[in-house]
Amino acid sequence: MSVSALISEGMSSMFDGADPASLSDAVLEERVLGHAAQITALTAEFLELVAELDERDSWRGPGIHSLAHWLSWKAGVSQRTAHEQIRVAKALRELPLVRQVFGEGRLTYSKVRALTRVATPLREKELVNLALACTASQLERAVRAMRQIDRDRGTDPDRRARAESRGRWKWNPDGSLSVSLTLAPLDGARFLAGAVRAEYERTRTMGDPDLPTPASVPRNTPVAGPSVEGAPDSEGAPGNRRDLWRNVPSNLAPAVVAMADAVHDGIDMPDIAPGAEILVHVGEGVENPHLDDGPALTEADLEEASCGASVREVLSRKVSGSPGRRALLGMGRKQRTPSKAMIRALFLRDRCCQTPGCGRTRHLHAHHVVFWSHDGETELDNLILLCGSCHRALHRGEFAIRGHGRQRFSFHMPDGSAIEVSPATKAPGGWTPDGRLAAGATVPVGGGRLELGYATEVIYAVWEWRERQATAASVAMAA
How far are the Cα atoms of 363, 391, 455 from residue 394, in angstroms, in the given order? Predict the structure, then answer.
């Protein structure tokens, strides 16, 4: 019998469904490692598929505002985990050697996740050798050291020209707002830190494993402010535990809008502060409702702005005999918003964005199922919590919500078909283990005994040698 046949037979017996309690210690340990190798190889294949799905954009659909949202809804993973999986999957596209060894079950997902923070095609070979010879925790420490060395080897701060922060904004012909910022180093760090915090708050979902629970909050710890005015915050502050969320979003726009919303809701302004309010010009003879000194608004924009928001209408009419002039009739009252008691009851009922697969717990909007502009009542039977992204998608017609009385609601596609709240997941049939994977594929070479400082210095010496060789070759060609 060939070696491959023997390996395949042994692998099949490893997945015979035997009761773990009936196995000897040696067999149990071997099977744990064998399953770990199979899981690693399957994870590599899964991430390759995720990267392809991200590139195709075929996941887009009604109310689905990101691939992470789609994975959370369809694959049953938390959005925090999905964000990291997508990051790793995209990074692996540029790292063929890491991808190959990952697929062979020899590099676990924990190691690959760490490698993708510092790996480049130039560094790939040495980093893979390092990862194969150490544990996941050792590799994490090595990666942290490498990132610090990379920062230290950058441009000398004292030799840089002094950078000043500056920014501009303008309304574009298509109605969008362009903002251009150039920030000094510390200001830039503050901005990114604020964006991370805003994105963290904006995308928090129910059941995230890295979210603090009420039991983990020590006494006398300040509790974070509510995400909806008047709503209780059941999650509290992180206390002394370390948070696992530390990603700067690649698309900063939603986080910046969340930052603006937080400032808008958290800072009181004088009664006369037109720049701090959202003013919409409407009225007799106004052909296109528009923002004050800004672009025109679509019907969907108006619906979104008036749905439970605090927006003031500017009423005006044309002045006869004076083309282009308008008489200001007055400032309308702010649209009626749910009372604090109603918001509190709504939050206790829904807890998070109710769109299937979303579950965000911050920056929520109280949406009128029957629109306010269509005489929808501000009552719990007609209110539901949606995050800003889902709220906008709904008003753009990407999906719809129907009320069925007694505070019961259903979600529907544009064609009227119901959207499943929690699609069932199941393992594919006919799966067989990969007989090419050794049972101990994930075990570090040499038992994981590695001196990290020495290993890091050796790796950087190799990279410096490569750079010198490349420079010398370029000089020789130029000569």
Answer: 16, 5, 54
Task: Give the pLDDT band of residue 219 (cuts 50, 70, 90).
Answer: very low
- Residues 102-160: pLDDT tens digits? 999 999 999 999 999 999 888 899 899 999 989 999 999 888 888 777 766 654 444 44
Phi, psi dihedrals of residue 25, rounded to the nearest 5°: -60, -45
Q: What is the DSSP letter of 212?
A: P
pTM of the model: 0.61
Q: For 328, which DSSP code? A: E
Number of Cβ within 10 Å of residue 55's Cβ equals 11
For the purposes of burial, counting CB atoms within 10 Å of the CB of 41, is it exposed (0-12), middle (13-18) or buried (19 or more)?
buried
CA 305 to chain centre: 25
Can you list the alpha helix ranges (DSSP code H) found in 104-248?
Answer: 109-115, 124-132, 136-152, 185-203
CB distance 365 to 388 below 8 Å: yes
Closest-CA residue to 436 (of 104, 157, 177): 104
Strands (E), 307-450: 312-318, 326-331, 364-368, 383-387, 400-403, 409-412
61 and 392 Cβ atoms separated by less than 8 Å: no
* SS3 assignment, position 92: helix
Q: Is 317 helix (H, G, I), strand (E, B) or coil?
A: strand
Helix (H, G, I), strand (E, B) or coil at 286: coil
